[in-house]
From TrEMBL:
Keywords: Transcription, Transcription regulation. This is Regulatory protein zeste. Transmembrane segments: none annotated. InterPro entries: Myb_DNA-bind_5 (IPR028002). Involved in transvection phenomena (= synapsis-dependent gene expression), where the synaptic pairing of chromosomes carrying genes with which zeste interacts influences the expression of these genes. Zeste binds to DNA and stimulates transcription from a nearby promoter. Residues 7-79 form the Myb/SANT-like DNA-binding domain. One of its GO terms (cellular component) is nucleus. Self-associates forming complexes of several hundred monomers. Pfam families: Myb_DNA-bind_5 (PF13873). It comes from Operophtera brumata (Winter moth).
């Protein structure tokens, strides 16, 4: 069985820099032209990442998967940290912390992607009985 080749730290850093400067790439592009532009950018990114001296070579589709997995894992970790921080005290401290690269991922995808929208709950109006 073939072992899974892992991207190097330099490739992750390069991926993050590219996504930081091309943040719209992570979002669906409208229309056929948007899709073609996104495909060209992903191919450019794959070529850049594959030319990094250390690390692995992957197709643009595989690099998309790397980015999607990294975003997903980072969002889950950030959410776990946030949930622990908003919980009641008394338990052990949370040992999870975001690495500097993970913190930058959150910056690229936006805190809203992790925290979600704030929703105000609407309560029922209390009607006092007549006397």
């Amino acid at each position: 069985m073939e072992s899974r080749a892992r991207a190097s730290a330099e490739q992750f850093s390069t991926l993050l820099e590219f996504m930081d400067s091309h943040g719209h790439l992570a979002k669906p592009q409208p229309g056929a032209q948007g899709r073609l532009r996104a495909d060209r950018l992903w191919q450019e990114l794959a070529d850049t990442l594959n030319s990094v001296g250390s690390g692995v070579r992957k197709t643009s589709d595989k690099w998309k998967k790397v980015w999607a997995c990294w975003k997903s894992k980072t969002k889950k970790k950030a959410l776990a940290i946030r949930r622990h921080a908003s919980g009641t005290g008394g338990g052990p401290s949370c040992r999870l912390i975001l690495t500097p690269l993970e913190a930058r991922v959150v910056g690229v995808i936006g805190a809203l992607a992790v925290e979600g929208h704030k929703i105000e709950e609407q309560g029922f109006e209390v009607i006092k009985p007549r006397r």
